[in-house]
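Predict the assembly for these two chains.
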Amino acid sequence: MGEWSEPGETRAGRPLDLGALLARVARGDEAAFETVYDGVAPSVFGLVRRVVRDPAQSEEVTQDVLLELWRTAYRFETAKGSAMTWVMTLAHRRAVDRVRSAQAAAAREARAATPEADPQDAAEAALDRIDKERVRRCLGALTELQREAVTLAYYSGYTYQQVAGLLGVALGTVKTRMRDGLIRLRDCMGVEW
Amino acid sequence: MVSIRGFGHPALHTLAGAYVLDALDDADRARFERHVARCDSCLQEVRGLRETTALLGSAVAERPPERLRAQVLAAAARTRQQPLAGAADRRAGPGWPGNRVWRDLAGRRGWLPRVALATAAASLAIAVALAVVSVTTQHRLNGAEERNRQVAAVLTSRDAVLITAPVTTGGTATVVMSHASRMIVFSARGLRGLPSARSYELWLIGPEGTRPAGMLPPPTHGMTAPMVAAGVAAGDKVGVTVEPAQGSRQPTMPPVLMLPLPD
């Protein structure tokens, strides 16, 4: 994975050994946690903000994720993936949980599912905001359907059933495009796992 | 919800993409995780795809407001960590960093003054450890299986919350509460040892009176096996006193723990 394995950096700009820091955090090392915060908060906040959108709720979710790291750093196991991936997996789940519970509450109250903005706009907006050149290039190399399926689920927090509805394609097609789209991204970005 | 039951493993395998994108509902997620638990190649694929989605996430990084840093660091300083039972937690399921239960439990949080109220996600770690302890040491007891079933029911309830608090004479008490079922699971670790004629007794204490909730079993490796107490009422506190080994109908000693339950 090389340059991509640990996107975080310390405030001083040095590369971050997040796995080692998490081991220190697991032992209650508050200084290590500060360094972890500086290293991962922009990635966590950026992703949460993409999914949750509302700034205040995004801050709440980001805080939850960081505190979750503090409490459960002992769960991280190097053998199962990179530390940054562990953090981002947690962040995405929390963000999606927030969006879905908000959706559920809204649906209960309004009993009307207002369609979101045009999915193609959403996919393009996602692409515009992506500042990592390689990720942008690899996303651009997907088929349109692959890219929309992946970005609507990942950046907008839709379930695959919702994605199928938004794109007007069959469920089976959506889940297949999500998988083969991600496989193509994985290979394009040189992920080794 | 769309069921994918009946399509067999090939259909399940194709859910790997939707799974790492968190695009499955709870039922499909659970089915996929059960599948992955038996499928090494699926697990391998999930890991690679997760590394990939993490890169998508980091690609939209955005600096958070500066005040958030101070808030988070201050909150961490007063938030108890959950270092317990990491090993047992790892046995809990294939869905690193958490299985479906972990995810269902996530999201409930907060803390009371001087009491760490951690996420119920963390409670699972403790709970699994406790269940393991109780299974390995008490399998000979006929009631153990039913007790474990009740423990699991509380711990996996959607509204489970975890509270830990220090015991005044030493040690830490852990309570997992489900409002919906009006049940708690209680355990403790590091309690001070007692002479053989004495035992710790658990109480529910509140507007509905003081009700005995059982004698704490002797600890194994410093940890008491989880006890279930049902019929928790609004305003109840969880109390522990030292009593004669056969137990008392009402507390005869001042409590070593008096823990308010969240409303």
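Residues 73 and 165 of chain A are 38 Å apart (CA to CA). Chain A touches chain B through 89 residues (CB under 8 Å).
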